[in-house]
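Hey, resending since the last one bounced:
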Amino acid sequence: MPITPRPRGRPAKADQGKTRSRSAVPLLRDLGDVGAAYARDRKFVWALARGLELLRAFVPGRGALGNSDLAALTGLPKPTVSRLTYTLTELGYLTQVTRTGKYEPAPPLLALGHPVLGARPERLAVRNAMRELAEIAHGQVALAAPDGLAMMYVERAVTAPPEDMRLEIGSRVEMVRSSLGRAWLAALSETARAEAYARFEQRYRNDWPALRARVEDGIAQVRARGFCLVDGEWARGVRAVGVPIRSRDGTRILAMNCTSYEAGAVQRLEREFGPKLVELAKRVGPLIG
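The structure tokens again:
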């Protein structure tokens, strides 16, 4: 009997009223194309997909999670969550906290991510330059890759961020509201961007027309000067410039941004840090692929 995934778009009842990490976005629904078609696709292994999505619920700053927490975050039935956490614990990817019965990521999970991060020469190539720029800007410089309808940090350099803005490697930010996401979208082909827009429309529904106008303004900025500015949209008082990074052969696109937490930093971002990011992106592009 085929398994029907929960509807996408609006949060499930279990999601409503729950506090999310600032870096988190919805899980299974965030894939956008996980729909009824996959329920009849014999090649698609739902048990594997659900187990991996369960692991994605653990993000920096969220702490240990119980089965009820995981059910609320993923929309999966609690009995399914219980079986998944049991299996993942037996395999060593989760560990159960004796005092609370909740679960935390275990060190063997690092083995899954290490080959990915270790195989990215762009991280090593730009690390020092990112650190230098972060110090000048008194903020953060991040390198990110697309992940569903979000951008995921794959490298970052930061100087004294506010406590509620401590995003780490693996953290995710909304694509449509971040300079990283808008810069990445600017580098897509018209066809690929139209596909992304269709997924955004399904996710954001009535909010999408206003968001689309701001996304397209960011894309126009990238075309005009190589970078886009986002001021206070993702979080109050946080402003950033973002640039797309294309591989030499054009098959991969990443994005980089420079965030400033200083009041009145918009002019410096536009006049100084944006152009510096554009130059840095030109150096990194040939290293990707």
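The domain at 120-287 is CATH 3.30.450.40 (Beta-Lactamase).

Sorry for the duplicate.
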